[in-house]
Amino acid sequence: MTVLEKQDMRDMEEVIRNLAYELWEQAGRPEGRSDEFWFAARFESERREVTGETPPGASVGRRAEGPRHESAADWEKRPRGFEMW
User: 46, 53, 64, 74: least CB-packed within 10 angstroms?
Assistant: First the structure.
C-alpha cells in the first residue's frame, strides 16, 4: 500500500468518524450502540460518494449549536464515575 493510499484511508476513516458522531448526537447520544452508528456512517459515506453528493474524502460539516444546558434531572442520568470536581 502506498503512502497516498494510506492517507486516503485515514481521511475516509475521519469522515466516517465525524459522520458517526453526528448521527449519534442526532439520535440523542444513546449508549452501547457505537457499532450501529459506525456502520450507518460508513454506508452513508459510501452512498454519498456513489451519488456524488460530496467529493470522496470530504469532511462532514457539523451543525452550529449553542451550549447544551443541563438540568439537575440530567445530572442524575449521567453514568457514575464521570463526575467533574
Answer: 64
